[in-house]
Amino acid sequence: MRALTAQLAMELRLTLRRGENLVVTLGIPLVLLVFLANVDLIGSTTGESSRLDQLVPGILCVALISTGLVSLGIATAFERGNGTLKRLASSPLPRWALVAAKTAAVLATVV
Question: How high does pLDDT run on average in the chain?
């Protein structure tokens, strides 16, 4: 269990170090929210508060999906390119613990 928590802590630190993860997690949803809040695509006559009430749930879904899928893909690609996955496979850390740590790191980032 100590190996799992140590790997989880390392995954969270690495998530904060990768600029691509931060762009996908924070940048894209914020840019989409600002853009869609300022552009009148449908030509509706509703007020600004109702427009934001309609946009925010969709932007949150985009943020969750992009964080969960893209960030994990980026992290795995970096680790494969650096040879980290081969080193982790030969370490005493079981493979299920590596997968659990990566999953927990993505869940912690999403929360």
Answer: 80
